[in-house]
Amino acid sequence: MSHSETGGVRQAQKQRTRRALLDAALGLLEEQSLSSLGLREVTRVVGVAPTAFYRHFRDLGELGVALVQESLSSLHATVRAVLAEQAGAEERIDHTVAVVERYVREQPAHVRFIARERHGGVRAVRQAIAGELDRFATEVAAALKSQPVSDGWSDEDVRMLAELYVDRLVMTASAFLDVRDGGDQDTERWRAVAGTARRQLRLIDVGRKHWRDAVS
């Protein structure tokens, strides 16, 4: 085996171990917070020595930051694409709620991690979540700014609107998760969460249409 091939094998193994550490931590965090998680717990699940952990992360806080990026990055582009659709407001709202619903169904552990650690005890992770949500709001603001109904709006007001949307999406994801964890997925309670989310977004949309008149 050539030197380059050996290096490729080692790099692939390193990536697999890193992935295994992330997955193990995420699984353990189903039942506890990051601040209570022990490094040895994670490495024991993966089957590596504790010292091997430091080849991938400085500490559990850095691992948590990686989980934050992983948990939220995939949602950004999807919601941004929905908001950029040329469909009517009602259809965009339905699509947005459907995106959040699918996200909770497919990645409940990631949603639970964000919900728990958003106000958790690890400062670096709290800051990472705040930073990701801030970036999310910036992306949403850009999509909203491009819509005709935003003509004449100040950048500050569009940003405020974007933050309202992002806050509602986060709260909706948490509500779906609560229902799922209660064993009521695909029941009336689940549909009620979706219905409430649609009404809330419609309320925001109605207010948006009259905002310029209210502040003029």
UniProtKB/TrEMBL annotation:
Pfam families: TetR_N
InterPro entries: Homeodomain-like_sf, HTH_TetR, HTH_transcr_repressor_FabR
Record-linked Gene3D superfamilies: Homeodomain-like (1.10.10.60), Tetracycline Repressor, domain 2 (1.10.357.10)
Entry keywords, A to Z: DNA-binding
Domain HTH tetR-type, residue spans: 15-75
Superkingdom to which the source organism belongs: Bacteria
DNA-binding region: 38-57
Name of the molecule in the record: TetR family transcriptional regulator
Species the sequence originates in: Streptomyces chrestomyceticus
